[in-house]
Amino acid sequence: MTLAAVADRAGEPGTEKVSRVRAAVQSSTGKGKAMKVVTAEQAAAAETPATRSGVRIGAWGRALLRVVVPPVAGLALLIGLWHLATLNGGGIPSPGKTWDAAVVIFSDPFYREGPNDQGIGWNVLASLQRVAIGFGFAALVGIPAGFMLGRFAVLSQMMNPIISLLRPVSPLAWLPIGLLVFQRADPAATWTIFICSIWPMIMNTAQGVTRIPQDYLNVARVLKLSEWKVFTKILFPAVLPYMLTGIRLSIGTAWLVIVAAEMLTGGVGIGFWVWDEWNNLKVEHIIIAIFVIGTVGLILEQALMLVARRFSYENR
Amino acid sequence: MSKKIVQIEDVGQTFSTKNGPFTALRGINLDIHEGESVSLIGHSGCGKSTLLNLISGLTTPTSGVMLCDGREIAGPGPERAVVFQNHSLLPWLTCFDNVYLAVDRVFGAKEGKAKLKKRTEDALALVGLSHAETKFPHEISGGMKQRVGIARALSMEPRILLMDEPFGALDALTRAMLQDELVKILAATKATMVMVTHDVDEAVLLSDRVVMLTNGPAATIGEILEVKLERPRDRLALAEQPEFARYRAAVLDFLYKKQLKHAA
User: PROSITE patterns attached here (chain A) (predicted)?
Assistant: First the structure.
């Protein structure tokens, strides 16, 4: 008997079950929308129209307050303390003075007046470009290397002592090597990013490969899947969340390191800009740079968190 | 008697552990015939899953001979489909794609896309999950996941269906419902099945033979009970039949009188 014929028969009983499941399915597909509708209906049933809108705005307002107020209060506290600390003058500029300088800087972020005098936008973009190139190469090398280390225990035993030895080294220690090999400052900075980005990607990818549940591999064995299918259908998706964690850690470190590397190598870039403004004794610009560096780092981190959440299957 | 699908001759399994070799199974002799449903039952740790893994080929025995269709079992293969205890669906694939992966592997070489799609749909319809094709495993209940696992196994049209405590992780009501469904599916497909279980009712309800294992270490087959209840079997009707109670009592007697003594 074919499966199709059997299916017709086996499908017969349990219409009740099917409808129950269908109801469950519907509620889960329209999650957000459906739930809102239900609450609105309940509210309508329970209360008169006059109080309803008031209650809803009140609830919304309270939720908004709970989300927005604490961070704003924290920021206000920071600026307040900063203001108090700079009341009596001194080297650190006050919040007001910094704000005025920021308005000037951000009113024209993309000007160019010679190689050493460019807008903050160009500087940030130059740093991001270096990070992207160094990080890209690190991903190209690190992720396949991680897969290899995770898959072959011998390789992992060979490489682990080397990785353990090199990983704690400050990436800046590699800068002179980069300068020696590439003879120019720019690739040397990129090289530094490469070195600091590669370790988390190797380690996390390798860990992801070794942590693939045996069940999934058993499925592959029972089905006798081809190596390519094992990789695309099981290995890669299973390792992806670990890989993304590695990428996130790498980007974080890379963004930390680029500022220091650029201070040493010069050229265009946010790190160089900080050093340049220190030489010009424009401390308010340095503070602005700190905020800019922090903001860009935060955006990079959050963007990768979003991507990671999209591909995380464990917490669902 | 119908054809033997699996022959197990004097099979033993010894694992090497830190404290020296550990004999899990010894002297297992068992034939499984076409269209037959066999349960392996025993106390936990007695090696029932080890025996099932040997049949599936996920592990190979340290002694003895295992044959499937007259050929030695050297490794796993789709003709011996496994339903795993914890469903083992791939979380990044939809229910459809989970089943399709298996269908494509077995029939992809000789059949077109449309035919493969039809096979997948039929397998899901067989377990009553046509409406959940596009769902991901995390979006459906535990019972539904296990049904997709069964659909995946059946979709390969295996020679023999191997189930490792397929309903162990489910609540009692869902388990009963799935058992009833499995009874229907087995009757309809005439599939051969070996199931590991620790549930006496489940063993008697679903099997033609209940293979009872002695306690480990070095477990072996203690008794084999032939269940000669009429099929199709109905859970409610059986509950009142004295024969059903007798079979049940026989298994319980083995598990709790003959084997419990050795347990301590």
Answer: ABC_TM1 (PS50928)
- Integer Cα distance of B82 and B74 in angstroms: 16
Among A223, A226, A234, most B C-beta atoms within 10 A, so best to mutate, is A223
CA distance B230 to chain A (A): 20
Confidence (pLDDT) at A315: 47
Cβ-based neighbours of B151, under 8 Å, separated by 6 or more: B95, B99, B123, B124, B126, B127, B129
User: Angle A4-A9-B91 (CA atoms, 0-180°, nearest 5)?
Assistant: 60
What chain A residue is nearest to B124 in terms of C-alpha separation? Answer: A7
How many CA atoms does the CB half-sphere of A80 hold within 13 Å? Answer: 6
Asked if A200 and A250 count as a contact pair (C-beta separation under 8 A), the reply is: yes
Minimum CA–CA partner of A213 in chain B = B88
Q: Round to whole Å and give the CA distance between B52 and B177.
A: 24
Query: Over the stretch A110-135, which tens digit does the pLDDT of each residue have?
Result: 888 777 778 888 889 999 999 999 99
Establish if B86 touches chain A: CB-CB under 8 angstroms. yes
Please state, in angstroms and rounded to a whole number, the distance separating the CA atoms of residues B40 and B165.
10
Q: Give the separation between CA B13 and CA A125, rounded to whole angstroms.
A: 64
Q: Does B103 touch chain A (CB under 8 A)?
A: no
CB contact under 8 A, A222 and B86: no
pLDDT 10s digits, B140-178: 998 899 999 999 998 998 989 999 998 888 888 888 888
Q: How many CB pairs under 8 A join A and B?
A: 108
Q: If DSSP states are collapsed to H, E and C, what string results for B99-135?
A: HHHHHHHHHCCCCCHHHHHHHHHHHHHHCCCHHHCCC
Q: Which residues of B touch A218 (CB under 8 A)?
A: 58, 76, 82, 84, 88
Q: pLDDT at position B124, please?
A: 92
Q: Does the pLDDT of residue A197 top 50, yes or no? A: yes
For chain B, say whether A219 makes contact (Cβ under 8 Å).
yes
pTM of the model: 0.73
Predicted confidence at residue A22, as pLDDT, reads 45
